């Protein structure tokens, strides 16, 4: 049976070049980067190289990149770190209603500990309006955090404008760029970002490695306490092979960015075009103009996204409903709710995300399968009878 993976926003396969680069660091070059003999120094050099590679993808200095255990850790670190460091200055944090749970659940934790969080509304296409942000700022605001690209609907936020507002009010600006990294050009200096979360497994690197960009001059308290690794800001013996893989994936992403964007957006547009013209009662959620190149978030009216997911899975196709983290619960997606999509339509929504290994034949197979699956489900749908289809 054909296998088609259309869930690149949940995770990506590790590219072969990345894996090859990693392997020696498990076996021969396995030294502890903190050790002072040659084996350790070589490990340290590999770590430094990876730091340069990740910094190169976002136009940062290597000294501004700190490796973490995952993207979620970077989000947790940014929020709790700023909250702790600036608690004498204020207790107000501004974020949005459409953040990843790594952000939202950390905000809830902070709320239980005396902080106040404003969750900004978004437009119907998922965009945060600069005026909405400006209006939420108080003299107690210590951090503004707006995700760069939304993981469910793919909307790209106006980060440069939002960061400029933060700067004008002398407030720190953090962005969760896990979905943006390697999918949109990022220049942290030009954008005016203070803190930024990244993850390797969304850019063809391994799972279990993330990074934080922390602008020079900032010093957040450690999130993991212990040894002096990561310039004293993140303890724990480094995930050497994983970090080497992240570095290689970042270097490849930088070299391939234009091609990647072109390849993904062409296939995504082809998917959207075929689905919306060949399957009735479908619509796309999120911004058409400012969108992740691989993301298609599509609502199929009158049926359940979970049923579509399962029937596609029987045909070897992997897609998701909402985000991977919420797909086990039947709670409607908080992102689609914030966009104002009616609850019954949210339940009929599927996220397709294409990537570097997706082909046009894959898309044709998926659309042909979808047509069959959607028709079958609509015939069974009780809403169908009411509508007299
Ligand atoms: C995947 C993802 C995360 C979490 O990254 P992990 O490395 O899986 O912890 C955070 N934010 C966004 C937007 C994501 O898509």
What are the defining features of this structure?
389 residues, alpha/beta, 7-stranded mixed β-sheet, 15 helices, 43% helix, 13% strand, binds pyridoxal-5'-phosphate
Question: How would you describe the overall organization of this protein?
Answer:
This protein has 389 residues and is an alpha/beta fold. The protein contains 15 helices and twelve strands. It has helices at 16-22, 24-27, 38-58, 71-85, 101-112, 130-136, 159-168, 188-191, 229-232, 240-278, 305-314, 334-338, 343-346, 360-380, 382-387; strands at 4-5, 65-68, 92-96, 116-120, 141-145, 172-176, 195-199, 210-214, 282-284, 295-300, 317-318, 349-353. The strands form three sheets. The protein has a seven-stranded mixed β-sheet with strand order 2-8-7-6-5-3-4, sandwiched between helices. Helix 3 runs parallel beside helix 10 (240-278). The two termini are 33 Å apart. The model has no long low-confidence stretch (mean pLDDT 96). The structure holds pyridoxal-5'-phosphate (PLP).
SSE run: EHHHEHEHEHEHEHEEHHEEHEHHEHH
Shape: globular
Low-confidence stretches: none
Largest sheet: 7 strands, mixed
Would you tell me the structural class of the helices and strands?
alpha/beta
Summary of the model, kept short:
The chain contains 15 helices and twelve strands.
Summarize the SSE layout with pairings.
Layout: E1 4-5, H1 16-22, H2 24-27, H3 38-58, E2 65-68, H4 71-85, E3 92-96, H5 101-112, E4 116-120, H6 130-136, E5 141-145, H7 159-168, E6 172-176, H8 188-191, E7 195-199, E8 210-214, H9 229-232, H10 240-278, E9 282-284, E10 295-300, H11 305-314, E11 317-318, H12 334-338, H13 343-346, E12 349-353, H14 360-380, H15 382-387
Parallel strand pairs: 1-11, 3-4, 3-5, 5-6, 6-7
Antiparallel strand pairs: 2-8, 7-8, 9-10, 10-12
Bound molecules: pyridoxal-5'-phosphate (PLP).
């Amino acid at each position: 049976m054909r296998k088609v993976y259309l869930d690149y926003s949940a995770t990506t396969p590790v590219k072969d070049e990345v894996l090859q680069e990693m392997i020696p660091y498990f076996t021969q070059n396995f030294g502890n980067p903190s050790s002072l003999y040659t084996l350790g120094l070589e490990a340290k050099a590999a770590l430094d190289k990876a730091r340069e590679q990740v910094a190169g993808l976002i136009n940062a200095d290597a000294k501004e990149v700190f490796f973490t255990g995952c993207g979620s850790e970077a989000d947790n670190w940014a929020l709790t770190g700023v909250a702790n460091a600036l608690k004498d200055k204020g207790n107000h944090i501004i974020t949005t209603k459409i953040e990843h749970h790594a952000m939202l659940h950390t905000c809830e934790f902070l709320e239980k500990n005396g902080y106040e969080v404003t969750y900004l509304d978004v437009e119907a296409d998922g965009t945060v309006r600069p005026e909405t942000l400006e209006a939420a700022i108080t003299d107690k605001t210590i951090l503004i955090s707006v995700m760069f690209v939304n993981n469910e609907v793919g909307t790209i936020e106006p980060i440069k404008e939002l960061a400029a507002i933060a700067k004008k009010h002398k407030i720190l600006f953090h962005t969760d760029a896990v979905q943006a990294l390697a999918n949109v050009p990022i220049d942290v200096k030009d954008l005016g970002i203070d803190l930024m979360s990244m993850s390797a497994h969304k850019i063809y690197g391994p799972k279990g490695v993330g990074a934080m960009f922390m602008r020079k001059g900032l010093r957040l308290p450690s999130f993991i306490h212990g040894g002096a690794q990561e310039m004293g800001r993140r303890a724990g013996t480094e995930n050497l092979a994983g970090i080497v893989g992240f570095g290689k994936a970042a270097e490849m992403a930088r070299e391939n960015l234009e091609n990647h964007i072109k390849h993904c957006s062409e296939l995504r547009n082809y998917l959207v075009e075929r689905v919306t013209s060949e399957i009735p009662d479908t619509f796309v959620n999120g911004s058409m103009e400012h969108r992740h190149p691989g993301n298609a978030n599509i609502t199929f009216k009158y049926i359940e996204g979970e049923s579509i997911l399962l029937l596609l899975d029987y045909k070897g196709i992997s897609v998701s409903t909402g985000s991977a983290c919420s797909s086990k619960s039947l709670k409607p997606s908080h992102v689609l709710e914030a966009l104002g999509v009616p609850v019954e339509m949210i339940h009929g929504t599927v996220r397709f995300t294409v990537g570097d290994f997706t082909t046009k034949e894959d898309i044709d197979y998926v659309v042909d399968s979808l047509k069959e699956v959607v028709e079958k489900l609509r015939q069974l749908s009780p809403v169908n009878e009411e509508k007299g289809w």
